[in-house]
Amino acid sequence: MNDRTPLIDRKFANRVDWNLMRTFVDIVRAGGIGAAARRLNRQQPSISAALKRLEDHVGTALLHRTATGVEMTAAGKAMMALCEDMLESARMMPHVIAQATKRVEGIVRIQIVSGLVSPEFDEAIASYHRRNPAIHIEIRVSPWRQLLDALEQGEVEIGVGYDSSVRGSLMYEPLLVERQQLYCSRSSPYFGYRVNRLGELKDQGFVLTGEDEIEAITQLRRRYRLGTVVSGLAEDINEARRLISMGVGIGFLPTAAAASDVESGRLWPMLYADFEPAYDIFLLARAEPARDTATQLFWDEVIRRVRAQRA
Question: What was the pLDDT predicted at 1?
Answer without folding.
Answer: 46
